[in-house]
Amino acid sequence: xxxxxxxxxxxxxxxxxxxxLRKETRExxxxxxRAGYDCPACGKPxxxxxxSEKRMQSFQSPPGPFCLVRTDDxxxxxxxxxxxx
Length: 85
Prior knowledge:
Elements (H helix, E strand, L loop, with lengths): L18 E6 L3 E6 L14 E5 L13 E5 L4 E5 L6
Antiparallel strand pairs: 1-2, 2-3, 3-5, 4-5
């Protein structure tokens, strides 16, 4: 599956057909990777993606391995299944 391109930020609408929206607020979005997109940090498929436009973000540690990617305007947290990346 293609790797998400976050070179100029991340726009969920470019990939919407491959994600299931799990939760959305004004500044955060939680998505499920239904298309098997690859993580831009490690190049392996990820399960869920949390996108935050907040300047500061607190959250509990996700289960299993995860990757963080920072764009100019967003923090992207990619969670991988057990045993990955």
